[in-house]
Amino acid sequence: MKVPFSGWRWLAAPALALAASTALAAPAALLNLPDFDALAAKATETVNISLDTSLLSLAASFLDSSNPDDAATKELITGLKGIYVRSYTFGQDFAYPAAQVDQVRRQLAPPAWQRLVEVSSTKDHTHVQIYVSADRGVANGLAIIASEPREFTIVNIVGSIDLAKLHRLEGKFGIPKLDLPDGKDGRQQGR
Amino acid sequence: MSEDQNLERRLRSALGAVDPGEDFAPRVLARIAAEPAYAAPPARTGALVSWLAFGFAASVVLAVLLAHEWQVRRLEQGREARRQLIEALRVTDEKLSLAYRVVNSREGTAPPEHSGA
Amino acid sequence: MSGDEECTGGDLLTRALAGERAAFGALVRAHQRLVFSLALRMLADRHAAEDLAQEVFLQLYRNLSAVSSEAHLAFWLRKVTMHRAIDRLRRAPALERSTPRAALEEAAAVASEMQPGDPLLERRLRSLVTELPPAARAVVLLRFQEDLDPVEIARTLRMPLNTVKSHLRRSLAQLRERMTETADVLI
Questions:
Q1: Which chain C residue's Cα is nearest to B22?
Q2: Please, are residues A132 and A113 in contact by the beta-carbon 8 Å criterion?
Q3: Residue A39: which region, alpha, beta or left (left: phi > 0; alpha: psi -120 to 50)?
Q4: With the CA atoms of C182, C183, C185 and C187 taken in that order, what torsion angle do they form, in degrees rounded to the nearest 10?
Q5: Whether C25 and B26 lie within 8 Å, measured CB to CB
């Protein structure tokens, strides 16, 4: 069954429901990401970003509020305390060891983290997991682990982020709208 | 030759590479040179002045340069932070979109319960 | 040819990484056709294409350490150029795209002058390519201008392979149909 696309409700609603049911202890939404230097040396492309609260604040001060795209980005990151990305692309399939990825997965365990989505495509050999962390019923962290044949990516967001607002920025900063349904009202492309 | 092969041959011929001209590379280098972060350090002057005046002038110049250097560095740090922020958001949305695509593809399935954390 | 162009791409990359501005200039000259052509075919505007091409090389200058080899450099340039071009097209006003009526009038103008194998026919084909949606246009350019296979296109655009193949199939069908319209106008 196709999942309606509009407003990222396919993801945001379950995230909120999950957060509401989570236990009370304050979890650490910041992951301890391993040193991936050995992998970076083998990768053809590396994205290594670590933006803590002060760097996010610095970045926000360089967003132009009179520019609609910058203003939207500024609003999006208002609740963020950190965003960390490790993404590596390789010249061969599955050149990255599963052990290092598993080291991160082991941190994403209950009660601190709840798995929100886990999907696999056997055809494209793609595996994506999305986790949410919550404190007293409020989502305060997001983690994404995506494994593709020649790329693996870990994203750790600390703080609250509106996924619907994030997706509205698609196409603004080099995110190509390549494959999603036309329009934002959930209409599916005819195939 | 089939119709498809003919069209493909014509496309290859029609879409040949176009050169932007001989002055393109110099314009790129000029833009790099114009960026504050990549500007060459100021040339030293060889004016002859008394040592006292020279020392005073040098300290003033140094203070101005340090302030400018700090500003340039701050500007570069801020731009870099902004660039990294946008890149991080781009990657995040890309992977969320990937999950969405997999969910809605014919081949997309939830993996066995024992996998994942 | 200057001494710089005689050096291998790998040598230039190493020297550019070491901060040698002249070597970076040689890298620009070596790859400017690739970047500019892709930008021009995507944006269909020479000034915009040159502006975008300059930005791509500026970005390369800032991120040179992320490039590991000559082959990776070509991949990196194609990827960044296409993503930036698609981003610009998403933000460009819809008026830039020709209306069906305007397209037919242009077809008539071209058809009245063209002969088989005529450069005008190729000009018409280039014009039709610029009318494809951005993603499909990107796929067609990487296939027929850059001669990449579908797997390489999928990597460059971070697009599933089946989507690349689908874009190619539908775009060729659309181009074939539009070229037939042109011939019909001639008749």
A1: C29
A2: yes
A3: alpha
A4: 170
A5: yes
3-state secondary structure of A87: strand
Q: CA A144 to CA A105: how far, in whole Å?
A: 10
Quick one: tokens of A110?
């209950």
Residue of B nearest to C144 (CA): B12
Q: Which residues of C touch B106 (CB under 8 A)?
A: none
Q: Give B 35-74 residues with CB within 8 A of chain C.
A: 35, 38
Q: Say if CB B117 and CB A134 are below 8 A apart.
A: no
Sign of torsion, CA B78 B79 B82 B88? Answer: negative
Measured CA distances, A37 to A86, A105, A144, A151, A152 (Å): 11, 19, 20, 15, 14
> C122 vs chain B: nearest CA distance in angstroms?
5
The helix/strand/coil state of C115 is coil
- Higher-pLDDT residue of A12, A66: A66
Q: Which two tokens stand for residue C153?
A: 């296109």
DSSP-based three-state secondary structure for A143: strand
CA distance C2 to C96: 41
Residue A5 sits at φ, ψ, to 5 deg, of -90, -25
- Nearest C-alpha of chain B: how many angstroms from C101? 24
Question: B65 or B78, which is more confident?
Answer: B78
Per-residue tokens: B73:
């560095």
Rounded to a whole number of angstroms, the distance from the CA of C124 to the nearest CA of chain B is: 9
Q: Which two tokens stand for residue A74?
A: 């500024």
Decide: pTM greater than 0.95. no
CA distances from A153 to A6, B32, C134, C168 (A): 25, 32, 26, 28
pLDDT tens digit at each of 187 positions of chain C? 344 445 566 788 888 888 888 899 999 999 999 999 999 999 998 999 999 999 999 999 988 888 888 888 999 999 999 999 998 887 765 444 444 444 444 544 444 444 445 567 888 888 899 989 999 999 999 999 999 999 999 999 988 888 999 999 999 999 998 887 655 544 3
- C150's enclosing H/E stretch is helix C150-157
Contacts of A127 (CB under 8 A, 6+ apart): A118, A119, A120, A121, A146, A147, B111
Task: Give the 3-state secondary structure of residue A118.
Answer: strand
